[in-house]
Amino acid sequence: MFGETGDYDGIRYVLQEMQSLGVKPNLVVYNSLLEALGKAGKPGLARSLFEEMVDSGLVPNEKTLTALIKIYGKAAWARDALELWEKMRLNGWPMDFKLYNTLLSMCADIGFVEEAEGLFEDMKVSEHCKPDAWSYTSMLNIYGSAGNEEKALNLFKEMSELGVELNVMGSTCLIQCLGKARRIDDLVRVFNFSVEQGIKPDDRLCGCLLSVVSLCDMNDDVEKVLSCLQQANPNLVGLVKLIQEEKTTFEILKDEFRRIIGDTSTEARRPFCNCLIDICRNRCFHERAHELLYLGTLYGLYPGLHNKTVEEWSLDVRSLSIGAAHTALEEWMGTLAKFVQRDEALPQLFSAHTGTGTHKFAQGLANAFASHVEKLSAPFRLSDDRAGCFVATREDVVLWVESRMPPTIATQKPE
After folding, report:
1. What is the reported pTM?
2. Per-residue pLDDT, 230
3. Cβ 297 vs Cβ 332: under 8 Å
4. C-beta of residue 153 within 8 angstroms of C-beta of residue 117
């Protein structure tokens, strides 16, 4: 019961009661405790409990090990998870599909390519845990994140030869990888093959295609990707074309945006908006990008973008794409300039949060944000004690605004 609610204090109370009564926990109890500690977010205690269990002479089963791997993965304790895998191999502890795939998913989440390849090869030579569709999908995700399109394509070919069923997630990972590598013809080939195999493109795959459109520099490539997207979501293609037409008024854009977003699954709405903003930025439609950011905020796609207190005003761009983050920074700096010009009260500290991410390939947003800060000559600097956070003082912001104002306006005081 305490485990289901993640109540650590309750878990500890029961354990103490057992110890006081001389009741020795068995494997079922330890498994329940480990799952509960995972829900409570206590990886250190889970590790100590596991070591205590092993020291007591109990041999972990698949459920024990899977629970602990999930805890390590959630906490991004990759080294601990891989050390546990080595212990499993040395001690001959049981390994099953779920355990292997949990480890592969963890490697995908944090970008451990070589470690994942080792796991995958282990599965191939094992008697009872040959890679399944989920295993292959995890590897496609790993190669896609690492930008290794050749290995991803070879894996795709291997799946076809072995008759491993390709799922929509695997297609999405491979298409994303090929799109980043600008291998558009290969992308179209994989998309068409996936559709022929009966895969129905979902919103995540459509978002992937939309992100590739934002990356394309050549019109021919754009049209090839849009032709794929046309098969999956023709309404979305219509919106892409609409945002690039000068005659499109804000009211027309608003109505169409609301309709498309309303027909989109909740988890894909923000990525769609991010990609649309990126498309506008890459084609120098900056005003349209700002309109889309406004609409995204209006329809609740960017909750917590701004947080303002008496002491601090923060901008959180961790859920934004690079183009959307640039747009949000420009919008914010424009707002701050108006506050200074109107002599309105401002907090002492300003902060912009890009995050650092647990994935080894996830530093793109922070680096791109830093470059845009420099381009705008904005008064932000990386915080010494808060990773992925850019900070500025009120004095910095006021001086920045005044330096960009004509001298006559900068010296005037509002009446």
Report:
1. 0.80
2. 97
3. no
4. no
